[in-house]
Input
Amino acid sequence: MTKLNSPPEGVRESAVQMLAESFGTFYEHAIAVDTDHKITWISEGYLRFLGLDYEPLGEPITRHVTNSFMPRVVDTGKPVFLDLLYVREQWVIVSALPLQNETGDIVGGFGFVAMADNTSLGKLANKYNKLQKELDSVTSQLDLERRSKYRLSHIVGRSRELQGLKQKLRQVARFDISVLLTGETGTGKELFAHAIHQLSHRSHKPFVSLNVSAVPENLIEAEFFGVAPGAYTGASKAGRDGKLALARGGTLFLDEIGDMPANVQSKLLRVLQDQEFEAVGSNKVQKANVRIVAATSRDLQGMIRDGQFRADLFYRLNGMPIHLPALRDRLEDIDLIAERILDELTSKLNLQLYFLTPEALGVLRMHIWPGNVRELRNVLERAIILSDNNPEIGADLIRELIGVDLQGNSVGAQEDRRSETQRVPDYQVKVPLQDQMAAAERTILRQAIAGTNGNRKQAAEVLGISRASLYEKMRRLGV
Output
C-alpha cells in the first residue's frame, strides 16, 4: 500500500489562503435558520442583496429565497458544498451546513453565498452569469415580452386574510402543482398568477396568458394547441404555435376556465395527465412542459352538476385551490391598494403624485365595491382626470364618482328608499308580495350597514345573521 505524503508547505499555505479568502467572501453573505427553516440570523451584505430593508427574523427562508437549499440541509443533515443557486436573477455559489449541538442533534443550518466578484469563487459565479446572459440574449423578443410583469410585492395589504394568502402563494409556488384561482371578477386573479410564476423555479421562462372567454369557440382549440402547416384551407404554410408551445418551460395562465368548450376540456385533461398534446391538423405528439394556473369567477362545481364542466378536469386543475377575497372583505387594505393604484396611474400618465384625503378614504370604505379592485382603479383614474390638476383628491369628488351620500348610502339606495316609501303602503298598486318583501329587506340591510358605519361584521350581528348570510343577501338584493 502506497503511503501518502503530506503536501509541500507552499501548496498547503496556498490552500489555506484560498479557504480563508473564500470563507471571508461567504461570510459577507450568510444566513442561519432553525429546525423549522425560520431565519435566526442574516448578514448585512446578504440582507442588502435580497433587497430587504428589515431583518426577517422568524420568517421562513423560502419566503425570501424560494429555492433555498437550507430546508433540505436541515431536514436531512447532509451539507451542500459549492452548488449553484439562481437568486434575484443571477447565479450564486452556495454552501450550506447543518448545525449540531453537543449531543449531535441538528439545531439549524448555516449558509454561505459567494457573489460574482474578483475572488476565485466569484470568478466562477461570473462565468455562469455570463453564460446565462448569452443564453438570454438569444431568447426571442416574444419570449422576453412574455416574462412575468408582476411580483408578490405588487399585491399590497395588511389584512390577515391577505397575509395568509401571500404565505400560501409562497408555499404553492415551490411545487409544480396546478393552481385554481377563484373569486369575484376584479379581485386580481391575473396579478396572483403572475406572482406564483415569479416565485417559482420557472420564473426565467415565459408566462403566457389566455383569456378563454375572449376567444371565439371555433378558434379556441387552435389558439390553445396551435395549428400544423397547411392544416386547413387558408392556414399558414409555416404553421402557428399555440399557447401551450409558447409557454413551454414556463407557466400557462388560463383565465375564465369555466368558459372552455367541452371538446377542448377533454384535450386539456390529456395535457394535465400526460403532459403532451397535438396541434390542430397534426399527428405529431408534442411535450407540454408547462405549469397550469387557471382562474374563474364561476361556480365550477355547480357547472359540474349541470353537466357543463368535466369533473375529472376540475380535480386536475384544483390541485391547489386559492380563493381570492372580495375587496369588501378586506376594506382595511383599501388605503394601501389605492395608494399603489395612484402611483401606477400617475407614473403612466406622467403626472405629479396624487393622494386621497382621510375623508375620501372614509368614503371609499363605505362602498361595497361590486367590481372589486378593478372598479376602484376605474374610480381613481376618473378622479385624477376630474381633479383639475389638484393632487388632493377629496371626499366630495369620490362621492360623486361612486354615488354615495353624506350618510354613506348610494344614490341608488336613496332613490330606492323614496320609491319604496311611496309604494309599499299603497296596496292598491299591483306590486307582487315578493318584490315588496325584497324592497323592505333591502331597506333594513342598508340601514344596518349605515348604522354601523359600513362595518359588515357589526351589521350582521345587529341583524342576528352570519356575515356570509349578510353578503349573500347584499349580493341578491343589490345592496
Q: What stands out?
A: DSSP finds 20 helices and 16 strands in the chain. The first helix runs from residue 9 to 28. Confidence is low (pLDDT under 50) at residues 132-145, 411-431.
